[in-house]
Design goal:
Shape of chain A: globular
CATH architecture of the largest domain in chain A: Alpha-Beta Barrel
Structural class of chain A: alpha/beta
CATH topology of the largest domain in chain A: TIM Barrel
Number of helices of chain A: 24
Protein name (chains A, B): Family 20 glycosylhydrolase
Active site (chains A, B): 295
Largest sheet of chain A: 9 strands, mixed
Oligomer: homodimer
Family (chains A, B): Belongs to the glycosyl hydrolase 20 family.
CATH class of the largest domain in chain A: Alpha Beta
Radius of gyration of chain A: 27 Å
Domain Beta-hexosaminidase bacterial type N-terminal (chains A, B): 2-132
Largest interface: A-B, 56 and 56 residues
Strand content of chain A: 15-25%
Distance between the termini of chain A: 39 Å
Domain Glycoside hydrolase family 20 catalytic (chains A, B): 135-456
Chain lengths: 650, 650
């Protein structure tokens, strides 16, 4: 995963042994040595074979090695590089060839996924794979501004991205809730607007290098002119408020769209930004710099007579024009450092430079056609990247992300327009994630997005996806991804160190409230509120809910005793679970908020059992009342993912 | 935990609510603001109360707060500081007073441990605690040379140390297997002798600051003149080999005591070391620098005629004298930076300067009286720290560490001699630990050592310790300690993503081979060998083994049906477990090495059940043969921790 472009299964297997070794030939970038060494260690960790080869550092060091990697040339981590590879597994040797080390790294990930076993040994099946990505931009954005995400969180996610053949890490570094970059010249920015949570410049350079070693491009983002509370808390004088004196802005502690906006009419605004870019741009190697540009609500501009007068004098008819005026001032600041501008779709106005990348994000939630701006951008001559439909913080279903193709079948685009659609990017906004739970929001779901962006558009089977994702999810653990292990940590805290079986069972039928409803318009959670709660242990695509729905579907087709038994299994489990939750709660106050919902589920389950036993005492109408109890908003901030399935059989 | 010096339980409770706030008065160091903020977040995470107070940054910011902290003065993170505190919990307020913020930080940890709950709410019991440490040196050493331990591993362990009121982090940074310090002047050291795994100077300073914020002193160690393979791989010309040309030394990939030793007769040796200290000393604030000095086997010195001639010319009669000559050259290099020398006990010879700290480590394993050198050092006028008995990498029992008092009851020491015994230090050598399993070797066991060093010598009850340690272990999770969660990760890899119940059950009766036998004299494991195996999921004090032993003890006192039933429970569990392991193994080769041992346990269990049912078919002699099967060395590198208990009932 992602599914390769072409696979031919051959007969036979390649048996792994202690003597397995790797050799590298050609003219690759040094990252292949690091990558191949990492490959060896991961394979050794999975198999426990105690390989004797230590660190690969040289070309053609072990000519007799069973795995031969040949890369013609050194790859550059940039757009439109050749990332293809060919992998040939035979019974006595494995040959991985690629134009560059970038393709070879992808091939090594494929090989790791090919690992099979019987009861006593590990092997690779004989196979020929020819593979290359469909899109050149396969990204993940992590918001390190709302909740700071330390270096180790970023690094382990870069490892996971590489495992899924993703190649762009978009790093959202600045927002209303914090400035996360150490500044040598404007040190007050990180000193006063980060609560001590920022990346040093050395750490940033380290992460850019770490990403490059994994074939991943890092795109930094400083979000302007809106989302500017953190900047303006330090430089209030460049804010658009009429009364922008000391203390007029503060770092935000809540979520939402705030008014704080840079003043595009003030020359000092550009002096500050120019100096910031002079310091920040050299930390990054990418050709693009993301300047945000989203969700400027214009309130401060509307309320400021001087800004209104400026607009008139410049012939700018609305706030969009004024923002474009602002954006265009940034273009030369970035060009100076060899970088082009990228921004959220709001930057796309008639005067925007055509070498900008338009980042499409709005959709039906924002009253727009889903992916509409992506198509417009491509038609208007812009390169463009899709994030609408890939907002993984919305806690929507796996299927919704997987079926979200950057180029839908019904789109009418010329080949040239299509070529401007670079790909897509999963967006991990961090209002409700900390280092404890962030991995569980990103993984394994982002692997489905990675497959959408790499594999052929015809690869859409959900059953196959879920099956493969189960293995991917398990294997991501070896890269330090914490989505499975930290769920247990949260559940242990909730159960107060008692058994976690019942809370775990319940978590497998519950999903966190979707579409930002959990945070009640950004008002429920502060940025320092605890995220160690039941909703944080739950995720979308609740596993038992999916299993239950399959049972319901079968039962509706054939209400045999056997299928009824399978339903019974769940009902009995949920009744016992509720009883156990009540018991746990005696010594675990954090179980309390779960009880109303688990009681509703238990009550309804009991009625179904009575019905199966022909002892039903309440009417279907009353059953429907019970069913609707499952939808009552609860203080656990979750919804019962089995509601729709239950509705089918009420 | 550690148990306070004086506790008075009063009547009533202090109920926690959303409005709980903290106020700080007095004249403390700024670290108390960071510490109090961290305290709030941890308490909020445990209780889910959504406290509204965000970041503490000022003195007397919330005079009406329920928790009042007063510190008279700013604490210095150094030896013999006043770390005492007084904590008064009343029904409507909490008062924490301390001479310095260091004591106040300890008081906050105590308060967190006082958290209680019923079924619906959280509270603190009313209590008066007066507390201060017995020893001023309560340390943990982490070896980052054998296996590199990244910054996040160090930081989470510093957090856990602070939670256990420990105050010295001894950082073993250099050994045969690697040089872990970025060098500006001798960059080849980290470039060529670290495999890319080293701390940047900025990271080191960051860790020293992070530790200081938690009241912890960082003692760096560069181990010389032995353990020098990494240094000599870069500077072979200062090695003691006769033929010390290019390539004569290499970074070691195995464990053990190697010959590589600096040449104490070569002036260049001191030029290099002096320049290294000039660069490394300023990174640390501590008054001491650990120069190692252990396990110099003298082979290279004995074999080098020039060194022998040098000794004669200087009147040095043996290698000990020569090493002291070497050590004394380092004293002024360190003094230049305001630091005194600390070293492993081998540095204690008659000419060693009296302001050195002697680090006692050898014991019965090394053919010496346990703790003998500690007593000698104190009597000889040296300050001294005990690590013998605190080697947590030996995988010995909790009890052995807990009962190891730096000043045993039978020791005859003057008060002045006693005062030179500064305390002790748990030693986490890293031959067999990686970031995946290191926490499980350190925690929760080191909490028992922390209690030994903080609490009164009379606090020795094992039942109380085990009970409290269970809670401590669970709470360490909130600091990011991975001992519980990563065990599951390892077991999932072993079971190949099948159920982990059986492997987990087995891990609870197995312990890793002790006293370094797992590594077969350093020959079995390379530094890059996998440590994701069954032995890595096991730990000392296997939980079911302890529970089983209690059942056996009761049964031997009273072989009632009830007690027999309790034994049966275990036997039946182990028989079922083995059956399940066999089943798992069909799709999990890593289960294979477990089967011989689990079969032996299952076979013996079956015989016991037959005996209970009066159906015994084999003789006691044959039963003994079966019993001894449990002790056969197995490829899983573990031993059955129930052997001794079973022996009692055969």
């Amino acid at each position: 995963m992602p599914w390769p472009q072409k696979i031919d299964i051959n007969t036979g297997t390649f048996a792994l042994s202690k003597n397995f070794k790797v050799n590298i030939t050609g003219n690759p970038n040094g990252r292949i040595f690091i990558g191949a060494t990492r490959f060896l260690r991961r394979l050794d960790g999975r198999t426990g074979l105690f390989f004797t080869q230590d660190f690969l550092t040289k070309i053609n060091e072990v000519p007799e090695a069973q795995l031969q990697i040949n890369c013609k040339q050194s790859g550059a981590v940039a757009l439109n590089e050749d990332e293809g590879y060919q992998l040939l597994v035979e019974t006595n040797k494995i040959i991985l060839t690629a134009n560059s080390d970038l393709g070879a790294l992808h091939g090594l990930e494929t090989l790791l996924q090919l690992l099979q076993n019987n009861g006593t040994s590990f092997y690779f099946p004989a196979v020929t794979i020819t593979d290359a990505p469909r899109f050149t931009w396969r990204g993940l954005m992590i918001d390190a501004a709302r909740h700071f995400q330390p270096v180790d969180v970023i690094k382990r996610n870069l490892d996971a991205m590489a495992a899924m053949k993703m190649n762009v890490f978009h790093w959202h570094l600045v927002d209303d809730q914090g400035w996360r970059i150490e500044m040598k010249n404007f040190s007050k920015l990180h000193e006063l607007a980060s609560d001590g949570n920022y990346y040093t410049q050395e750490e940033i350079k380290g992460i850019v290098k770490y990403a490059d070693d994994r074939g991943i491009l890092v795109i930094p983002e400083i979000d302007v002119p809106g989302h500017a509370s953190a900047i303006l808390s330090v430089f209030p004088e460049i804010g658009s408020k009429v009364d922008n004196g000391l203390g007029s802005y503060a770092v935000e502690r809540r979520s939402g769209i705030f008014n704080s906006t840079l003043d595009p009419t003030n020359p000092k605004t550009y002096q500050v930004l120019s100096a910031i870019f002079d310091e920040v741009c050299p930390l990054f190697t990418s050709q693009y710099f993301h300047i945000g540009g989203d969700e400027n609500n214009g309130k401060e501009w509307n309320a400021n007579p001087e800004i209104q007068a400026f607009m008139k004098s410049k012939g700018l008819t609305n706030n969009h024009d004024l923002q474009t005026y602002f954006n265009m001032q940034l273009v030369p600041m970035l060009k100076k450092h060899g970088k082009n501008l990228m921004g959220w779709e709001e930057i796309m106005t008639k005067d925007m430079t055509k070498d900008a990348i338009i980042h499409a994000w709005r959709g039906t939630n924002e009253g727009q056609a889903s992916g509409g701006s992506l198509i417009s951008a491509a038609k208007n001559g812009y390169k463009t990247v899709l994030s609408n439909g890939y907002y993984i913080d919305l806690m929507l279903s796996l299927e919704s992300h997987y079926k979200n193709d950057p180029i839908p079948k019904n789109s009418v685009l010329t080949p040239e327009e299509k070529s401007r659609i670079l790909g897509g990017e999963a967006a991990m906004w961090s209002e409700l994630v900390t280092p404890l739970n962030i991995d569980s929001r990103i993984w394994p779901r982002t692997a489905a997005i990675a497959e959408r962006l790499w594999s052929d558009e015809s690869v859409t089977d959900m059953v196959s996806l879920r099956k493969r994702l189960n293995t991917v999810s398990f294997r991501l653990e070896e890269l330090g991804i914490t989505h499975i292990r930290n769920k247990e940590v949260i559940l242990r805290n909730i159960s107060n160190n008692q058994s976690t079986v019942a809370v775990n069972d319940f978590s497998n039928v519950c999903e966190p409230l979707k579409n930002y409803t959990r945070n009640g318009g950004g008002k429920k959670y502060f940025m320092f509120s605890p995220l160690s709660l039941f909703a944080d242990a739950c995720s979308s695509d609740a596993s038992d809910a999916i299993a239950f729905d399959a049972v319901v579907t079968n039962y509706l087709k054939d209400n045999s005793i056997e299928n009824q038994k399978r339903l019974r299994f769940f009902f009995e489990k949920w009744i016992a679970m509720h009883t156990e939750l009540v018991r746990l709660c005696e010594n675990a106050p954090l179980v309390q908020p779960l009880l109303p919902l688990s009681k509703s589920l238990s009550d309804l389950s009991a009625q179904f059992l009575l019905r199966f036993d022909k002892k039903q005492t309440i009417s279907t109408a009353d059953l429907k009342v019970l069913l609707e109890q499952l939808r009552v908003r609860n203080s656990a901030d979750v919804e019962l993912a089995v509601y729709n399935s239950l509705k089918k059989i009420v």
